[in-house]
Specification:
There is one protein chain. The protein has 161 residues and is α+β, with helices and mostly antiparallel strands. It has one domain: 2-Layer Sandwich (60s Ribosomal Protein L30, Chain: A). It contains 3 helices and 7 strands. It has a 5-stranded mixed sheet. β1 and β2 form a beta hairpin. The longest helix is centred in the middle third of the chain and has 23 residues. The chain starts with a helix and ends in a 7-residue tail after the last strand.
Length: 161
């Protein structure tokens, strides 16, 4: 699968990759080390605009939180594409960690993060299946309901045979 195939799969699902936003704090969006890509936590924003705020189970519905999780994945893929030059260099998503800002009593964090996991599987196929944690937290940066970070195995070279 090449970069164009991945973008086409996203489009078929109704998604487009947002432009990779520069960090607003002191961190690197993606670190590559010995064939592994570590993607810093991504929040549901486009450009400088945060599209979802509040706690899931209070101000944010579970469905809206699932959409926020999908946007977090799109932002992660955009950051990867910027650094790698092509999403075709993704060999495998190894681990996804999802943080869900949860109101008291909300305990469906795995369901929220399922939206991110499902999207990766739909776009990357078997390579998108991964280990995962879905963690409920009291607060997230900029009052977002969801933040996602990922660890991926990366191909060092591309060959399409």
């Amino acid at each position: 699968m090449d970069d164009t195939d991945i973008v086409a799969r996203l489009a078929a699902l109704g998604f487009t990759l947002p432009p990779a936003a520069p960090p607003q704090f002191v961190y690197v969006p993606v670190v590559l080390h010995q064939g592994i890509a570590y993607v810093s936590g991504q929040i549901p924003k486009q450009g400088d605009d945060v599209l979802y705020t509040g706690k899931v189970g209070a101000e944010v519905s579970q469905e809206a939180a699932m959409a926020a999780a999908e946007l977090c994945v799109l932002n992660a893929l955009s950051q990867l594409r910027l650094v790698l030059g092509s999403l075709a260099r993704i060999e495998r998503v190894l681990k996804l960690t999802g943080f869900v800002a949860s109101a008291p009593g909300f305990n469906a964090q795995p369901k929220v993060i399922d939206a991110a996991s499902t999207l990766l599987g739909q776009v990357l196929g078997e390579s998108g299946r991964h280990a995962r944690s879905a963690i409920g937290v009291a607060e997230l940066p900029r009052n977002v309901p969801v933040e996602i970070e990922m660890t991926l195995a990366i191909r060092t070279s591309l060959s399409f045979t």
